[in-house]
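Standup notes
- DV: blocked on the single-chain target, sequence here:
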Amino acid sequence: MREIPQALANASNLNMRLLSAPSAACVALLTILSACSPRIVGTWNVQKYETLTPGKQNTSVNNVGTIEFRKNNTGNRDIHYNVMGIARENTGAFTWTYTKTYLTIKSSDSEFAKIWLLVENKRNFQRLQATNGKNQIQTLELRRK
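- DV (later): unblocked, structure below
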């Protein structure tokens, strides 16, 4: 059996260590990134909810409740407001998905259940916009609680 010269064995071990360090760093980085939650996860105050309809009076309400997005893609909303003297309540559970540009809220009984465009996406502030298919633009502003 042929033996590997000591200098070659040392160089081989050094190369393995050099290759292992970046590989370990990549694995650690991927683990950290995959474990990170989307920025939307947490409890948010609904700072503003606005509906704009061309040719009609716009409606805007402020500080109307909270919405919570959990890591497991479920959430809960507790929103109460008045529009033209009519009390509205939007409470209950929902599911959600999130990309870099969209937030989708799914629920059978909510006007918030739709695909929202992320207009402003900051750590403590989110501005979302959507349409309802009837020539209305809805804006939702969230501030981290």
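- Follow-up: The first helix runs from residue 6 to 35.
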